[in-house]
Amino acid sequence: MLLPFYLLSMVSFLPVTNARIPFYGKTIQNQSQVLDIYDFVVVGGGTSGLVVANRLSENPNTTVLVIEAGVLHNKLSFDSDEHEDFITIPLITSANIPVLGNGPRGTKYDWNLTGVPQPELGGRSVQTPAGKVVGGGSVLNSMVYNRGSRAEYDRWEELGNPDWNFDGLLPYFKKAENFTPPSEALLAEWDIEYNPAFHGNQGFVQSSFPPFVWPSSRNFLRAMLELGIRVLKDSMGGDSAGAYWFALSLNPRDESRSTAREYYIPERLNLHLLTQAQVTKLDIKAHQSKHSVTGVEYVMNGSFIRQHVNARNEVILAAGALHTPQILQLSGIGDATHLSSIGVEPLVDLPGVGANYQDHLLFVIVQSVNIAVSTSNISNATWNAEQRALYDTERQGPYTTTSGNFLASLPLNTVAINGSSKAIQSAAAAQLPTQYLPTDIDGSVIDGYLRQHKLLVRGLSSNVSAHVEFILSDSVILPVLLQPFSRGTIRINSTSPFDPPQIDPRYFSNPLDLSTLIMSVEFGRALQATHALQELNAQELFPGASVQSTSELGDSIRDGVQSTHHHVGTASMLPKHLGGVVDPKLRVYDIHGLRVVDASVIPMLPACHMQSTVYAVAEKVGFSFSRL
């Protein structure tokens, strides 16, 4: 029988020991409370780390420690002293992700990273926020809860990963989700449809439709129909190429953000969560045949004293696509030539560590519309106060949603209203792919990219896989590049774990990506010109009507493009000879006792926002642990 949490906090901690004895689960911030050894040590308490820790600790005989560099944000109720509006209230969360260079909020929940200057962006650096908090990116993201199309996940299997396809992931998409169907009022007014076969209803992550819909959503829906875009009944079943209503990671009980924090169950006696502690490297025991990871080294925030904790079975890296390769490289796992050049002794030569970096890019088309209720009303203090009061008292109104309710994920052929998709397809097929990769990259990584390039070229003619997303709001239309050809790197350039990793996204290093976004802006203008949006007198403010030529549009995009923070690929699940870092069980090659479970293992980006996919990946691995 589990003790209530308030009693657990009153129980003294058991002595430190290597023996297998019971211990009381708790959140700890004091190194003295950490045991010498656990069965599993999970590095990172974010979107994937908490899932894995939850599934491991379902076995009461398995001891688990999660180490998280950030704090535990208390979102248990709206009465919490630590409640913060910009985390929990949907409409306010829309401002968490920087666009047009507005910058991150700089809170304690963010690593506040910035990439290196990008040559194709005129030397501009792009801000790269990443969650530094229990719950990770699920605490800071824009809450969109969607999936890509079947073809985008099936590619993972084609690259050499058996059972990593849409059908293999669907049970775990559903396992993570606790779906609440749209209300009768929404169904009646907006004709939102869903298929219960594609959704789970017992998961930890709440997924629902907000009770408020911006009136302009009806115009966006009609505009899509004018342009011949099909409207999907439910995008979650492997067919997401079209326009659709999207759900949010939203708790319908109080219309607040739902995060991976829901996976953390402090009452479990076999689970510890150590917060405000940064893992600096892996502890590795050398063997002639195969090295073994025995634990991790870490420091408490504000301290430079190195501490160690051992793992009896495995260390599981879940630090995210930016920090997982950093920890691996600091530990001597990565490209041996690069590691030697900066003074790190290479122990396991895996050139794919930090390579194959991919990200979705967005551009902002700013527009004005003439409609009584729109996102522009937020600047009106009186209206804002009224709507906030409505949310606080009744959980109704605009504050229950984000800045949009309706989006479109479109194939290249659909976006190419002027037939320019043929030019992009021809250019892609004629490319020498190696021309657009870093010059110092290993041959195995090149071979892996050549396989990916073929799949990307094949997909350009597909009508069932999306290449550009359009996030639709009153004041903006956001084209998002969904299947980039460009590949970047994450590398350490010093031996100090306190120096940030060197993030080089290499945006637009492959010119196909810029061509696709230029075409997307042209589609956005066609959308503005529809009768449906002209009823709202939609007028473009940025980049502006004077910007017309391909060259001018390209310059505007280079100046304004931003990351969507969908970082993947830096410890890719690929065969080793293709630059892979982990095998299909997510075990790191050539070393015992180490696994990676986060977005870094995803070998190719699906055409969607990433949180539901990361949950599914972690749930799939979590299920494999249940059979150990």
From TrEMBL:
UniProt signal peptide: 1-19
Any GO BP annotation: secondary metabolite biosynthetic process
Active site (catalytic residues): H566 (proton donor), H609 (proton acceptor)
Residue span, Glucose-methanol-choline oxidoreductase N-terminal domain: 131-154, 320-334
Cofactors named for this entry: FAD
InterPro entries, A to Z: FAD/NAD-bd_sf, GMC_OxRdtase, GMC_OxRdtase_N, GMC_OxRtase_C
Swiss-Prot/TrEMBL keywords: FAD, Flavoprotein, Signal
Residues annotated to bind FAD: T47, S48, V133, N141, S142, M143, V144, V279
One of the Pfam families matching this protein, by short name: GMC_oxred_N
Family stated for the protein in its record: Belongs to the GMC oxidoreductase family.
The protein's name: Glucose-methanol-choline oxidoreductase N-terminal domain-containing protein
Organism the protein comes from: Coleophoma cylindrospora
